[in-house]
Amino acid sequence: TTILRSDLVYDCGQSLNPAVDLGQVEGAFVQGVGFFTNEDYATNADGLVVNDGTWTYKIPTVDTIPKQFNVELINSARDQKRVLSSKASGEPPLLLAASVHCAMREAIRAARKEFKANSPLTFQMDVPATMADVKELCGLDVVERHLQSLTSAAASAAVKA
What we know:
Blueprint: E1 5-11, H1 18-37, E2 68-74, H2 92-96, H3 98-114, H4 131-138, H5 140-160
Parallel strand pairs: 1-2
Domain Aldehyde oxidase/xanthine dehydrogenase second molybdopterin binding: 1-66
Organism: Aegilops tauschii subsp. strangulata (Goatgrass)
Pfam families: MoCoBD_2
């Protein structure tokens, strides 16, 4: 999955440090993209996480970042109820990454139409939607199996000849 473009507009109140707020918004969004697309963790029978590092647990990487990533901070009016009129900038943008999950669902729906797969246009897509899940939902696993069967059939025919 490649994210071509993301445009975020975030109200950070009266920013105490715009550079820090910008970094927090960008980082939280990328973390959220990782959560929605590739942070699939395994658990044992007791429900405990068994992943022991990045060899078995995939975190966001540079490839996770949208190719075009536009972030704009809006400074809202002063508010006496907030510390120096500022707002939190780390956690809320994480949830904006749900838009990536929704966009992936629409891309899968379009792929199903394009490939004319015998698949319904409504489907269950869990979180995280890993690369393997997306391929299967698009119907690409069927294409790969078909190509493998052609290769196997050609190999069998070559052996018989």
